[in-house]
Amino acid sequence: MPVRIVAMVLALGMTGSRMPAGQVAQSPAARVMALAETGRLADAERMARDGGAALLVPLGEVLALQGKLAAADSVLAVVARGSGPEQRTAAAALAELAARRGDFPGARRLVDGLTASYERDGDRWPARDRVAAGRAYAVLASGDAEAARAALSAFDAAIAADGGLLEPRLRTGDLFLDHYNAPDAEASYQEVLARAPENARALLGMARVQQFQGNPHAFETVQRSLRVNPALVSALVLEGELFLDAEAHDSAAALGHRVLAVDSSALGGWALIGATAFLGGDSAGFRKASTGARRFHPRPAAFFAMIAEWTARHRRYAESVQLAREGVTVDPESSEALGVLGMNELRIGAMDSGRAHLDRAFARDPFHVWYKNTLDLLDEMAKFRTITAGRFQIVAPAGQADLLSMYLAPLLEEAYDTLVARYEYRPPTPVRIELYGRHADFSVRTAGLTGLGALGVSFGTVLAMDAPSARDAGDFNWGSTAWHELTHTFTLGLSGHKVPRWFSEGLSVVEERRARPGWGAGPSLAFLAAFKGDKLLAMNRLNEGFVRPSHPSEIQFSYYQASLVCQMIEEQWGRTALVAMLRAYGDGLDTPGVFQRVLGVSEVELGRRFVNWFRQRFAGPLQGVEAWDGRSAPKGEFVTLLHEAGGSLQAGRPEEARPKLERAAAMFPQYTGEGAPLVLLADIRARAGDRKGAADLLERYNAVDESSWEPNQREAELREQLQDWSGARKVLERMIWISPGEPTLHERLAVAAEHLGDHRTALRERRAVLAVGPADVSEARYQLARAMLAAGDPVGARREVLQVLENAPGFEKAQALLLELANRRPEGGP
To answer: Do the strands 456-458 and 431-436 form a parallel or antiparallel pair, or are they unpaired?
Structure first.
């Protein structure tokens, strides 16, 4: 069992926990436990000492909770050598202590003796001894399915013997979660909470489940746990970890010190202090924390593994690799250190060594769902194709690679050159970009689990994202996503990967908006209402919106708010201020220090400026919305106009709806939600026969919505009907970045380009038709040959025609084209 898990089992408390006081009379041991379970460890120790020999086991466990390991060992050994009723519980606790110290042979000897006895006559043991047997098996359960099943069976037997015991239910939940079975862990903790709603350990278990599932309520749940037991070490560590995720380093460090004030041997406390020192550039502080960890743990691989994982969450992947390697050096058998090393080597593009280290980690911890999922994905990726195009390596499913690289390669080259000029920085190349045809695969590549809500991720010079086929048409824009992720390559690189999340995300959205009309997040009605209701996060809390949203919309709000802050900074201080800020973060300054050095203002002052800037910029739309109360849907004049216009349209009175829609469109022209005025006005005009007016309204709408598939489709059809080939080409090009997998889209764009004499685009689109997989391959190849000829490549055209005729000898159009080619004298030929 990894040291961190053993430490958590010990830190989670006492062995005889029953239902709350008042339901049964409390024994002296139960009173000791009650004090310990509310964080009154010194009082619990005094009471246990006063109780003499009868309370030696509770005394030993309370001593262990305070990190007094030698004293705990001595006390428990006295009981374990005896023959009293607590002998087996003492032996199990001693085995946990031995494992915690890294003495696995000693732990094994204790476990073997206890479990051998249980397997002989455990069916006659009382409930507390069955709990002891479960604890003993659990010491061996990491990487051992047989031991894990035996532990669960022993805990179930304890519950059957005494249904009032909470302890076996708590330990069952811990065991399930340690083996990545969140649903069953949650069920076990809920059983405890149904009996004891304020049980600190069950609340901690629920917080860990929520963290595992990506539920932002983990933070408030662990705080509930700590209100019950402020000395619960594992809860303090989890809260510190969540503060680290939000890049609140001072709060995380303070929790690390609180942990050590309770238990100076707690590896999680030393890791929190070490992580904040490392992330803050305090090498002396990091060495001090490392020394502290080594004082209590001879091979503290978990110390380095935890810090490596937290460093990776700060997007400092190369440093995470270095830390994990140190953990492997300390203990070459540590599955935690090997796993973090392998995962982060994959993130920096070291695919072979990453795979090798993950294989070793999984061999030692075959329950680890992140490792298994990632190894399965690597097997699938072996079937992908890699296309090298200029400064980029495009990695995609074999059947999609040609089509996607056809568009992505030139876009990325354009983005790279644009961003070099913007940020005065040139990232190393090649940049690797991976596209996944299934969102679940992208999610595993990013986090090891399915269910991630993001579209893309940047590890620096390795990017990963959904391919267009991973989502329905209209769900996202894969061009703007690629531009967004490549921007992270620049902001991470220029800042030495020290840029805070909000600033990097904000700049990426700004660069999306600069790249193409309509790309990048725009204002939503809910965002405007939240601003008016003072529900947006303050400057010093922007990171929280990305990792700990208080409501479902807050993540999207945070992206957009961060982008507006960056936009305001550029408008008021200039582009060079953005570059200077990134360099200042690279120098190790925190956000208040960066604001003072580069902008000459405090966080509070910048927040005031932002509020005033936003009010001026969105004065019109803000007038049409009421302040959001945090619960109900947005209200106000704009919503009323949409509602009334919708009613008029449903009643068949479009002329009644028109002025309301025109007023709403003038009030909030960037609106892209349901019932968008510009789209409805376009429909009214189209029904009245005004195709040009309808197309122009749709063009205005499509210029502010990057993923509007249906409105673009309608505009394209109108432009084609009007024979506005230039307008049609513009729309169809835009649609490729929404969903490029439909052959007719490329055929239509080829036709529009041919009408305009744009042979280069026509040729590209005829190639795209073939790459997508047309219904009639011969016809598609024939059209490609015609495009080649028009583009001045008769040799290529002849090659394609011959390919057509080889497969379809009677294809008359191909025969005619071959004859035309034969009769044509090549330019400059004999």
So the answer is: unpaired
Question: Closest Cα to residue 142, out of 306, 367, 375, 372?
Answer: 367
Q: What's the length of the chain?
A: 830
* CB contact burial 5-43 (16+ within 10 A = b; e otherwise): bbbbbbbbbbbbbbeeeeeeeeeebbbbbbbbbbbbbee
d(CA 201, CA 148): 20
Question: What pLDDT, in 10s, does the model give residues 230-258?
Answer: 999 999 999 999 999 999 999 999 999 99
Average pLDDT over residues 466-472: 96
Query: Of 220, 204, 143, 126, which is closest to residue 171 (Cα–Cα)?
Result: 204
pLDDT of residue 583: 98
Which H/E stretch holds residue 388? strand 385-389
Q: Among all chains, which residue has been given the structure tokens 């939940």?
A: 173
Q: What is the pLDDT of residues 66-109, one digit of tens each?
A: 999 999 999 999 999 998 999 999 999 999 999 998 888 999 99
pTM: 0.92
Provide the angle, in degrees to the nearest 10, between the axes of the packed helices 301-313 and 233-245: 30
Q: What is the pLDDT of residues 529-544, one digit of tens each?
A: 999 999 999 999 999 9
Domain 388-445+454-494 coded CATH 3.30.2010.30: yes
pLDDT for residue 825: 59
Kindly state the tokens that stand for 381. 């990726």
SS (H, E, C) 289-304: HHHHHHHHCCCCHHHH
pLDDT 10s digits, 387-438: 999 999 999 999 999 999 999 999 999 999 999 999 999 999 999 999 999 9
Please enumerate in sequence order all residues whose Cβ is within 8 A of that of 558, keeping only pairs 6 or more positions apart, or say none: 502, 505, 537, 542, 545, 546, 549
pLDDT per residue over 680-712, tens digit each? 999 999 999 999 999 999 999 999 999 999 999
- CB half-sphere exposure, 442, CA atoms < 13 A: 26
Question: H/E element holding 649?
Answer: helix 637-650
- Residue 29 CB-half CA count within 13 A: 17
Domain 636-741, CATH: 1.25.40.10
pLDDT band at 723 (very low <50, low <70, confident <90, very high): very high
Beta sheet of 392-396, edge-to-edge order? 385-389, 392-396, 431-436, 462-466, 456-458
CATH code for the structural domain at 1-204: 1.25.40.10
Name the one residue in this structure whose structure tokens are 């919305």: 625
* Three-state secondary structure of 537-550: CCHHHHHHHHHCCC
Q: Which residue in 128, 131, 126, 133 sits closest to 111, CA to CA?
A: 133
Please tell us whether the domain made up of 744-830 is placed in CATH 2.102.10.10: no
Q: Please say whether the beta carbons of 283 and 253 come within 8 A.
A: no
- How much is the pLDDT for 826? 54
Instruction: Evaluate whether 1-204 and 388-445+454-494 have a shared fold.
Output: no
The mean of the pLDDT values for the chain is 93
Enumerate the domain spans of the chain: 1-204, 388-445+454-494, 520-630, 636-741, 744-830
Q: Over 50: is that where the pLDDT of 12 sits?
A: no
Alpha carbon distances (Å) from 613 to 201, 250, 377, 531, 802: 47, 30, 46, 12, 64
Q: Which of 51, 46, 50, 25 is nearest to 35 (CA)?
A: 46
